[in-house]
Design a protein that fits this description.
The protein has 816 residues and is mostly beta strands. The chain has a 22-stranded antiparallel barrel. It has a five-stranded mixed β-sheet with strand order 9-14-15-12-13. Strands 1, 4, 7 and 8 form a four-stranded mixed β-sheet that branches. The radius of gyration is 28 Å and the shape is globular. The relative contact order is 0.11.
Length: 816
């Protein structure tokens, strides 16, 4: 009897919450024309209940809690609609959306964004999420809690040179655009975030696409894309002062202001920022300055907007890393480095007298990187009619700067200098200081034409034509023996030109209420002219022409109002980078990389919880990796690997167990495999190379497990505490799966505190505190390896980038 009663009680406990739940449904339409709006975003209160209107404009939410509920609907080009209701039974709420009296900023990057109904694996970060952590760390750290992301910092603090990997994909394979304008360096193909100091303070939102993603402009999206949109129109005047101060003499001061909408059509915004940090690593300071200004005309059918932003950085180099022997206080290992002539006596003395985790190889006082980059964007959008709109943008990026370094006992003939004869002695090498310069321009046009039927389909045709013109050169600024050197004489000069043209077409077709078809076709052509080795090992001007076709196709199926399924298959192609071409001959020039990418996922959303899981398979042909092999011009160039793949499952979940508590987590479980790999290791005893064959080894810097979580609790009105946790599994430094050349797994926790007050004399005063690595975990997030044989022994010779222990950032933001 007791058992039956317990079962009955359990059933009643399950049933009671259900009878307290109702259904809300309705149709979203244009208030003026009464035409339905497909794809409008509908949100129910402070819950996970978020969905989109279907091809007949309808939406439906089941299991909505009775009581006060706020319904919010947004759609590009329309004013956000929101109403509060007291819900006691199943309710129909039809929504009439009013068109904005001016065109929306979202149209500027709509063409390269993944649409809500596109079968693309993506995550979007909104402005409020970004602002909560913006206290001086780089923009990559704002993305660190998103799925499959690993971030790292040379200086150990997240300020200065930082990097990001997504699914193990390195920055040279991650396409980045700001307002649809490509930002990857045309030659190295990486994005140097240090050139955009505090750009995060001018960001409205970011979309992170994992996998091949949708077509975008610039460098090939060969594993991920980051689409960044800067500040959108703020209709009301505002001013914001933000300051933060923290460990390692880190500080950030930012002032921003906007005019609001003047005469219902003009708006201006500006930001000025200054950042500084001494860094965790010895002498690894960052001195950063930036500004952002924009001015725009917002008409009923058009936008004309000029955006200018600039960054100037001076950072002390921490590129070399910390030797494993120093990191582990292995004095025998450090002595071995001296005995094998890997370091000089002076370098050895500096090493053993340093702290094991903050050691910096560089000691020259001006071992710095110095660069300024100015970005100009002119955007124009025009609504031809209710179905058609067009976008175009002109852009120019001007960059110039150098890194300076001290070279010990370097050969004079490397710099075109004659040997120096003093008495009976002939001097062939000298201590010197050199600067390596890059002076480049990148400019072009992007465009798109969009047709939105507002019911059945959305079609876009777009593309870009960009040109890069860069000069690489070097100068010796000081030498112990100057020989026949002259001030400002260039000891090398290398001009490069790259033309990059692409065109793409995208189609989202709503076959019926449940099924959406997606197709995306891109054609890209590249011309690259550079100074490199010919088959006779002479440096001459050369050129390559490449043509790529990148198709993607997929479907999204709405199983029910709360459950979605998608599947897609795409192809990506990517050209080799500058060093691959410059440091090889035409006979041994590497081939472009090729990627086939399958993505499939399913998601469920309800009032208080959500869960999504996706599977991916990325199959590479001719992926370029370092093998240690010396090529025909004596360089350690990357080599094409015939077959390799990444496959894994990404899981995201969120729950709101009580009103003031929000828990979100994600995890990635993956395999990242090279099927056949040959390693080449230098033998210093006879100057040969020892090769070893491997099968099914892990791709370097690709952890099998990545997980993160955020737990946020409002413990007092407008006062929040957040625990951020991140786990990254073991990463191998090369492609041999050798545990002696690996970065250990790590688990790091940060705690954030935020409290806002709203006085009458200003909009908001917000106090923030971020405690990074609260448990002082000793970990390294990046590294490199150069194994070699010396005196008959294999020396592993690993280098790591230690990250700071417990450190603090406190800030105050005042909004007027």
């Amino acid at each position: 009897m007791k058992k039956k009663f317990a079962v009955l009680a359990f059933c009643i406990a399950l049933y009671l919450p259900m009878i307290a739940q109702v259904t809300i449904k309705g149709v979203v339409s244009d208030a003026e024309s009464k035409s339905i709006l497909t794809g409008a975003t509908v949100k129910i209160g402070n819950s996970f209940n978020t969905g989109n209107s279907l091809d007949d404009g309808s939406y439906i939410f089941k299991n909505v809690k009775k009581g006060n509920q706020k319904i919010e609907v947004s759609y590009v080009g329309y004013e956000t609609w929101s109403q509060c209701y007291y819900i006691t039974r199943d309710t129909v709420i039809n929504v009439l959306m009013k068109k904005k009296t001016f065109l929306a900023d979202e149209l500027v990057i709509k063409a390269i964004r993944a649409d809500e109904n596109a079968p693309v694996t993506s995550t979007k970060l909104e402005k409020n999420e970004i602002e909560n952590r913006n206290m001086g760390q780089d923009i990559t750290y704002m993305m660190s809690m998103t799925p499959s992301v690993v971030v790292t910092s040379d200086a150990g603090t997240g300020v200065g040179y930082t990097g990001i990997r997504i699914r193990g994909t390195d920055p040279t394979r991650i396409n980045v655009t700001i307002n649809g304008i490509p930002t990857n360096d045309a030659e190295s193909q990486g994005t140097y975030w240090v050139d955009f100091p505090d750009i995060v303070s001018s960001v409205d939102n970011m979309q992170i696409q994992r996998g091949v993603g949708s077509s975008t402009n610039g460098a090939g999206a060969f594993g991920a894309s980051l689409n960044i949109q800067t500040s959108k129109l703020n209709e009301n005047p505002y001013a914001t002062i933000s300051s933060s101060l923290g460990s390692f003499n880190t500080y950030k001061n930012t002032f921003s202001a906007g005019s609001g909408l003047i005469n219902k059509c003009w708006a201006f915004d500006a930001r000025l920022s200054k950042l500084y940090s001494d860094g965790f690593i010895d002498r690894a300071f960052s001195d950063l300055k930036s500004f952002y200004v924009s001015g725009g005309y917002y008409g009923k059918k058009s936008i004309l907007k000029l955006i200018v932003f600039s960054g100037k950085e001076r950072t002390y180099q921490a590129w070399y890393g910390v030797p494993e022997a120093r990191l582990k206080n292995d004095y025998e290992g450090m002595q071995q480095m001296l005995d094998n002539w890997y370091i000089t006596q002076a370098e050895y003395d500096a090493m053993i007298n340093s702290d094991s985790r903050t050691y910096n190889y560089y000691t020259y006082s001006n071992q710095t990187d110095n660069y300024q980059q100015d970005n100009y964007q002119l955007h124009y959008s025009y609504e031809i009619n209710k179905n058609w709109n067009a976008n175009a943008a002109l852009h120019l990026t001007k960059g110039a700067g150098y890194y300076e370094e001290f070279k010990n006992d370097d050969a004079l003939n490397k710099y075109g200098l004659d040997s120096v004869i003093i008495g009976q002695d002939t001097i062939t090498s000298t201590d010197l200081v050199r600067q390596r310069w890059l002076d480049n321009d990148f400019y072009g046009v992007t465009y798109s034409l969009n047709y939105d039927s507002r019911k059945k389909f959305l079609f876009t045709i777009g593309g870009a034509a960009n040109k890069y013109d860069g000069e690489h050169y070097g100068m010796v600024t000081w030498a112990q023996y100057a020989s026949n050197g002259l001030p400002d004489k260039k000891y090398y000069s290398d001009n490069a030109i790259k033309n990059d043209v692409d065109i793409f077409g995208k189609l989202n077709y709503h076959i019926n209420k449940k099924l959406n078809f997606y197709a995306d076709l891109q054609y890209r052509t590249i011309y690259y002219s550079f100074f490199g080795y010919d088959d006779d090992l002479q440096n001459v001007q050369q050129a390559v022409n490449l043509n790529f076709f990148n198709p993607k196709v997929g479907i999204v199926y709405k199983i029910s109002p709360s459950n979605d399924f998608y599947i897609s298959n795409g192809i990506g192609n990517k050209e080799p980078c500058r060093d691959d071409y410059v440091q090889s001959t035409p006979a041994n020039r590497p081939k472009p990389e090729h990627l086939q990418n399958l993505e499939t996922g399913i998601s469920h959303t309800s009032r208080n919880w959500k869960v999504a899981a996706n599977y991916y398979y990325m199959y590479y042909t001719n992926q370029l990796v370092l093998t240690g092999q010396i090529n025909d011009v004596g360089e350690y160039n990357r080599t094409n690997i015939d077959k390799s793949y990444r496959t894994g499952v990404e899981i995201e979940a969120g729950i709101k167990p009580v009103k003031k508590l929000n828990i979100e987590a994600n995890a990635t479980f993956s395999k990242n495999i090279i099927l056949d790999f040959t390693e080449y290791v230098d033998n210093w005893d006879d100057w040969s190379q020892v090769n070893t064959n491997y099968s099914e080894t892990d791709i370097a810097f690709s952890p099998r497990v990545i997980a993160g979580s955020q737990v946020e609790y409002e413990f007092y009105k407008n006062a929040f505490i957040t625990l951020l946790s991140k786990y990254v599994g073991r990463q191998y430094l090369d492609n041999t799966s050798n545990p002696d050349r690996a970065i250990d797994s790590y688990f790091v926790n940060d705690i954030g505190l935020a409290y806002s007050i709203y006085p009458k004399f200003m909009k908001e005063i917000k106090f923030t505190l971020l405690v990074n690595n609260v448990l002082s975990e000793e970990y390294e997030s990046n590294g490199w390896t150069y194994p070699y044989y010396a005196k008959g022994k294999l020396i592993k010779n690993n280098y790591y980038y230690p990250q700071a222990g417990r450190n603090y950032l406190a800030g105050i933001t005042m909004k007027f």
